[in-house]
Design goal:
This protein has about 60 residues and is mostly helical. The termini are far apart.
Length: about 60
């Protein structure tokens, strides 16, 4: 394997790992919020669609 290809693969894998860590951290934060706060975030016209895109929805009645 060419050294430059190896470096590109390593850089890509680092980026993927960083993105996964960010996503996991965000899910931890959302999981720690009271249901009412998540419900308010879901009502927000900017944040709501993003959360729903990743499967976050009003699941508990609080």
């Amino acid at each position: 394997m060419k050294p430059e290809l190896r470096e590109k693969i390593i850089a890509y894998n680092r980026t993927v790992a960083e993105n996964k860590e960010k996503a996991d951290d965000l899910m931890t934060i959302l999981g720690a919020l009271p249901p009412g706060q998540v419900k308010n975030l879901l009502k927000n016209e900017t944040i709501g669609p993003i959360l729903r895109k990743y499967g976050i929805a009003e699941e508990t009645g609080g």
